[in-house]
Design brief:
Layout: H1 10-18, H2 22-26, H3 40-49
Protein name: YrbA
Family: Belongs to the BolA/IbaG family.
InterPro entries: BolA (IPR002634), BolA-like_sf (IPR036065), BolA/IbaG_stress_morph_reg (IPR050961)
Length: about 50
């Protein structure tokens, strides 16, 4: 979660997270990754929608 994701599409958010990890993905130090990237506003909205 962070302001850096504001205005980004879901794909752009994923690319922003993947970029610094590519070395680890390429040499299999990271095998699988699940990304859930939110702005603070999206996080607050999703928490309310999911009853948290």
């Amino acid at each position: 979660m962070g302001e850096m994701f504001d205005g980004m599409s879901r794909v752009k958010k994923q690319q922003a997270v993947y970029a610094p990890l590519m070395e680890y993905i390429a040499d299999n130090r990271i095998h699988a990754l699940s990304i859930k990237a939110f702005t603070p506003q999206e996080w607050a909205r999703d928490r309310k929608l999911n009853g948290f």
